[in-house]
Design goal:
It is built from 15 helices and twelve strands. It is α/β, with parallel strands linked by helices and 454 residues long. It starts with 8 loop residues before the first helix and ends with a strand.
Length: 454
């Protein structure tokens, strides 16, 4: 007995709304998970789900990222839009024409990749052929890009990576091409039962093979393709449109351009990894001394004012000029009074009274003199001089200051100077992740530097 399913009005409304949303408009919306499930049921033949009645003949709208990589899929069927990214890597899909993809498309190791790369190569060859027809990179033209292309081409030849046809081989190729044309014309005039058919076919095949062998080395400077979309830290980047060089990428630049590019790389590297990418012994030569000194000056000014006892001893304090003048005055007065007191006539009737008056006056002056003390509150000059002294020590040895205060040395580096130091230390090779090497070639009196970067 079948189990009854009871739907509430809310459930019914939700289902109707979902169906309406799926079928409304130009597309039928379906989740990536549901699409993949249907594909698996149809042995990953997209056309198998195209005819399903539920889709009403509408193209499918995939509501998120669609990943069908590493499946035997040969077609996406009636998919019209992917609201995300599409991954058809390692599938048998050869064409996604008509499918709009919101995000990126990954098609590595698929027929579609091979077709796409062939189309891209043909487009690049067409561009280069237009340059070749007008010989726009002839050295006498002085074209900068052309000179760089010549530098790269010469470098590949000098390194034995390519071997252009000699004049003799070029003449031989021309002769063979004419021979092939004559053989084909003669072959077209023969009847199928002519006994010379087999002989001519063998001659055609042999000639064609010789031409192909020579064509493999029929290369010139126009096979160096300047990529208009990418540079390598500002250096002009080239692809080589020759079989066997598919993934190779090269840069060519003058000495000035190489310097600028290396500095750009170093700054980007520092931005990416920060000072953590360097040893302390290396970066200590590139401390931002001015920043450290300014920080120390502010810190010491506060410390000296608030905690003077930590920076001044009793010997650092001195009497003021006024105090010294008063002391001198009091000592002179006391000496004069003592002199007069000693000269009193002892026979005078009021001797005792006078002597006591002198003594009282002397005692009062002595008390004032004894009360004069050095002021232990530092003056503004004392504070400024002490701060200046401490800051001079910091400027002489900023690293010691940072260490004494437990500060992170890497937070106080001069990144511009560190970038220059990195280039000075490691040279241009730092921006070449392929092998760290570079070569040079002279073209029209200018030295160009070549790096393979991929």
């Amino acid at each position: 007995m079948n189990e009854k399913i009871i739907l509430t009005n809310k459930d019914l409304h939700r289902i109707v709304k979902q169906i309406a949303e799926q079928v409304e408009g130009e597309y039928y919306k379906i989740s990536p998970e549901e699409y993949l499930q249907l594909m698996s049921l149809g042995s990953y033949h997209g056309k198998a789900i195209t005819k399903m009645k539920r889709f009403e003949g509408k193209p499918l709208w995939i509501t998120g990222d669609l990943n069908i990589s590493n499946t035997p899929t040969d077609s996406l069927g009636n998919v019209g839009y992917v609201d995300g990214s599409l991954n058809i890597s390692s599938t048998n899909v050869s064409n996604i024409t008509g499918i709009k993809v919101k995000g990126w498309v990954s098609d590595s190791n698929s027929p579609r990749e091979r077709f796409r790369e062939k189309e891209e190569l043909n487009a690049k060859l067409t561009i280069q052929e237009s340059l070749r027809e007008n010989d726009e990179w002839a050295l006498e033209q002085g074209d900068e890009t052309g000179e760089k292309a010549h530098a790269l081409f010469d470098n590949l030849v000098n390194n034995g990576e390519i071997e252009p046809l000699s004049d003799e081989d070029k003449e031989k190729l021309t002769i063979l091409q004419r021979k092939l044309q004559d053989l084909e014309q003669e072959y077209d005039t023969l009847d199928d039962d002519d006994e010379r058919v087999s002989e001519l076919q063998d001659a055609i095949d042999e000639t064609d093979s010789e031409i192909e062998e020579l064509m493999e080395n029929d290369v010139d400077v126009y096979m160096m393709y300047p990529n208009p979309n990418y540079t390598h830290y500002g250096l002009q980047q080239f692809e080589v449109l020759i079989p066997g060089f598919k993934s190779n990428e090269y840069t060519v630049g003058t000495e000035e351009e190489m310097d600028d590019a290396a500095l750009s790389y170093a700054k980007n590297y520092i931005d990416d990894v920060g000072a953590d990418g360097f040893s302390e012994s290396f970066i200590e030569d590139y401390l931002d001394v001015d920043a450290i000194v300014n920080m120390a000056e502010d810190d010491y000014d506060y410390q000296v004012r608030d905690y003077p006892d930590s920076y001044f001893s009793d010997s650092d304090y001195e009497l003021t000029y006024e105090q010294e003048q008063r002391i001198e005055q009091l000592e002179s007065q006391i000496a004069d009074l003592e002199q007069e007191q000693s000269e009193l006539d002892t026979d005078r009737e009021d001797y005792d009274e006078l002597y006591e008056d002198f003594q009282n006056h002397i005692d009062a002056l002595q008390e004032e003199l004894d009360d004069i003390e050095v002021d232990t509150e530092p003056t503004e000059d004392m504070i400024e001089n002490k701060v200046a002294e401490l800051v001079r020590d910091v400027r002489r040895d900023p690293l010691d200051y940072l260490k004494n205060y437990g500060l992170d040395i890497k937070e106080y580096i001069d990144e511009d100077e560190l970038a220059k130091g990195l280039v000075d230390s490691d040279g241009w090779g730092i921006m070449n992740s392929y092998d760290g090497q570079y070569d040079s070639e002279e073209v029209n009196g200018i030295t160009y530097y070549i790096m393979r970067v991929n």
